[in-house]
Structure formats: C-alpha cells, structure tokens
C-alpha cells in the first residue's frame, strides 16, 4: 500500500501522552503526524530546577523532531491547533496570521495537556507567573535572581525584606519542590555571593488552601515533608486562601504580605479539547472518555493524559505523567490493532507506580502501594527515576553531571537573567531607590 493511502493518525500535543502514542505506532502501517505549538518535548517534573537556576532550559527539553527522527512513518508540524471538525474529520490549525488551514485524519489523538488555572482571577497572572512551560520557568528564574541583585544595590535596608520575600501559592508537588529549592538557594548557595545583603535573611512563604501540604500523598509523608520544609526555613500557611495579588504583594486571610516575587503553583485546567469536540466533560472541563479512551460516539477520536477524565476503582485517574504515558501507549496499541484487523486490547487500566516529591538536598518522599519512604533513600530513587525518564540520552548525561557538580560545590548551573519584553523589572518598582 502506498504511503498516501495508509490510515492517517494525527496526534495533537508533544507531551508525555502524545510522544508515547507516537512511539507506540512506530511499526504500525499508518502515517503519523504530531502537531504541537512548540517544537520541543518538555520534561515538566524538572521545570522547578530551571526556575531555581540548577539546570538550563535545554537540559530538560528536546526537539520533538529529533526524538522522532528514526520513525520513518512520522512527520512533525509546529502548528497551533484551534479546533476540530469532528464531522469532516479535520483538525483546524493556524497557519499564517489569521489564515486557518485544516488537516484530515482517520484517527485523532488529543494529548493537549493543561494550562495554569487562576480560578477566576486571571488578573493575578501578570503578578504571579505559573510554572508550566520553559518560558514560565525562565521568567520565574529571572524574577528570583533579579530580586537579589536589586536588594544588593538598594540603599534603603528597610526595603530588603519586600525584595527578599518569596510567596508560593499552592502546596502540591510543584509548590513544595520549588519552596525547598528556593530555601536551599537562599541559605546555602548564595550565602557568600553578596556583600551588602544577607541572602540567608530571605523569607520563603508557602500558602495552601487545604488543611495540609501534598494532599495526594499519605498523611504521614505529608507531615514529614512539612517538617523538612519548616526546618529549612520555609514558612507554611495552610487552610488559608489568597484574596488579592498586585505588584506590591499578596493578601491572605485579610493580611497583606509585601513581596516582589509571587509564584502561582495552585492548580491547572485542561485544554479546550472538550469544546472542540462538543463532547461530555467533567466539572473541570476534562473530556469524559470510554474505557478504551475514545470519545463517546466517536470511536476514531482518543483523548489521553490531563485532558481526559476516566475513573478507575471509583476514583478519577490523577493528572500525572505516568497516566499520560500509559494511556498514550495503550492508544497506540488500539489503533495498530484496528488497522491490522486484530482484536482490540482489553480496556485501559492504569498501573500506579507511585508518587514522588523532592524537598531540597538529600530528602524526598515516595509512596508506592504499601511502600512509604522519606529521606535520603527516597531522594536516590527520585534522582534515578528522573534521569531514566529524560527523553534524550545526551540530556541524561548533562543533567547527571550538573547535579553532581551542584551537590559537591553547592553552585548553580544557570544563573543568567534573560530580560523579556513586557516583564517589569523588580528594580523599577515604585519606591525602590538604587545605589548611586
């Protein structure tokens, strides 16, 4: 059969789910097209290390085209998907300016992931960036590093506390890992780098609306993580909600906390895939899928990862990388079976390999089945797993080397401040006076 007559599989999203689906189809008699608005696959679990200057952006991201270069049946397109014509089986994309083009499909896999959720307060976004992309991570890194640089040349010592107070909103894994890394940076790495300020006086505040941090973990592990953060100098406020954020700080429980650096790690919302498909969704907007991950009434359309809602044992599957990867591989098998005329695989079932979170140097927590670990052994497991799952072998070597260097010397690997147009420098905030 000529290539043009092979069934066409369009995969939207080059994240964990999309890449797993593409790789699962590498030997199938199909044409595969992977579409993503960015040209790279991002290893999101290590974004916080880019934000805290441990790693450079290129060390946790790889071009999608490079990762799939050996798959002769796969093409890659850097395009923004704007909708889906389910009746005509076409994906709508922005091509040039306002011109809309479309791409036909026989099978469609939507692995479009999530975006930052400010829970109805999008006005907070300019003052409290999230941490979902490389752009977010480099923005956070620039704000953190610039805060220290600004404080070093600020002539009024009374303003140092505002500049060196870092507020994180949301105590899930991202918020906890980022808080631990910031505390380590201020108390260890920067200790002897400045002359006019004391970096150890920096104040890291972690805010959580629920009763405890890391609510998806076992309560005992959550308590140990809480104690570790507290011992590292992080102030934790649970059971309280953010009421307002502006360029001078954040209001929490009626109290204003003055801070020039606020980071939003509170939650996410799915892509608009449900609207594109006009399919049933849950309250969060995730597409409710069948046990084979197809959309009801659309057996040729699959949704995987954070965009999909599927319950197992009475509970919805979590929005973690392992779910997306396993679902992507499963969808690849389903499509390959259909094309080859083989019986369909059994309904999808997620195998939970466990949860991990790292809290600074030498300490992590691990929960896998009945196994509960905290401390250095869990940290070793965390490091090994993250290295193993980096998609590019070259990045594994680079990250391992950088981690070893940072561990031995306490020096960060990427402390450059990149200026972005439209990003207000801390040094120009109202009332700040610079050293002349």
Descriptive labels:
single chain; 436 residues; alpha/beta; FAD/NAD(P)-binding domain; 2 domains; six-stranded mixed β-sheet; 11 helices; 29% helix; 26% strand; elongated
Structure classification: alpha/beta
Residue windows where pLDDT falls under 50 for at least 5 positions:
421-432
Mean residue pLDDT: 92
Helical fraction equals 25-40%
Q: How do the strands of the widest beta sheet line up side by side?
A: 5-2-1-9-21-20
- Based on the coordinates given, report the CATH architecture of the largest domain: 3-Layer(bba) Sandwich
Largest sheet: 6 strands, mixed
Taken together, the total number of domains comes to: 2
E-strand count: 27
| Radius of gyration from the alpha-carbon trace, in angstroms | 23 Å
Number of helices: 11
Shape: elongated
CATH topology of the largest domain: FAD/NAD(P)-binding domain
What's the CATH class of the largest domain, please? Answer: Alpha Beta
The end-to-end span amounts to 74 Å
Q: How much beta, percentage-wise? A: 25-35%
């Amino acid at each position: 059969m000529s290539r043009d007559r092979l069934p066409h599989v369009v995969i939207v999203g080059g994240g964990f789910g999309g890449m797993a689906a593409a790789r699962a189809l590498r030997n199938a008699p199909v044409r595969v097209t992977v579409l993503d608005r960015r040209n790279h696959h991002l290893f999101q679990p290590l974004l916080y290390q880019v934000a805290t200057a441990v790693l450079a952006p290129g060390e946790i991201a790889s071009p999608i085209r490079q990762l799939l270069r050996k798959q002769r049946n796969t093409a890659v397109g850097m395009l923004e998907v704007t909708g889906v014509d389910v009746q005509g089986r076409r994906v709508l994309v922005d091509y040039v300016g306002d011109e809309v083009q479309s791409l036909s499909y026989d099978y469609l896999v939507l692995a479009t992931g999530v975006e930052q959720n400010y829970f109805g307060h999008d006005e907070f976004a300019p003052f409290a960036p999230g941490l979902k992309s490389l752009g977010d991570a480099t923005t956070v890194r620039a704000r953190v590093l610039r805060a220290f640089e600004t404080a070093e040349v600020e002539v009024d010592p009374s303003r140092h506390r505002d500049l060196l107070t870092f507020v994180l909103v949301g105590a899930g894994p991202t918020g906890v890992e980022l808080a631990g890394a910031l505390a380590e940076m201020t108390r260890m790495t920067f200790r002897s780098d400045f002359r006019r300020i004391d970096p150890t006086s920096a104040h890291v505040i972690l805010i959580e609306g629920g009763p405890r941090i890391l609510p998806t973990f076992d309560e005992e592990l959550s308590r140990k993580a809480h104690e570790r953060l507290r011992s590292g100098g992080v102030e934790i406020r649970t059971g309280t909600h953010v009421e307002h954020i502006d360029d001078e700080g954040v209001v929490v429980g009626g109290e204003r906390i003055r801070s020039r650096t606020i980071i939003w790690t509170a939650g996410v919302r799915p892509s608009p895939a449900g609207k594109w498909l006009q399919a049933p969704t849950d309250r969060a907007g995730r597409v409710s899928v069948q046990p084979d991950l197809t959309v009801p009434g659309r057996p040729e359309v699959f949704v995987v990862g954070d965009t999909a809602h599927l319950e197992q044992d009475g509970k919805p599957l979590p929005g973690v990388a392992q779910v997306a990867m396993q679902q992507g591989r499963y969808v690849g098998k389903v499509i390959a079976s259909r094309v080859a005329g083989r019986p369909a695989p059994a309904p999808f079932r997620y195998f939970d390999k466990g949860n991990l979170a790292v809290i600074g140097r030498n300490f992590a927590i691990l929960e896998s089945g009945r196994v509960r670990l905290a401390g250095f052994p869990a940290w070793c497991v965390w490091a090994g797993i993250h290295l193993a799952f980096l998609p590019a072998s070259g990045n594994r070597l680079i990250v391992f080397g950088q981690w070893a260097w940072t561990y031995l010397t306490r020096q960060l690997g990427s402390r450059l401040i990149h200026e972005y147009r439209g990003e207000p420098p801390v040094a120009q905030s109202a009332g700040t006076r610079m050293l002349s």
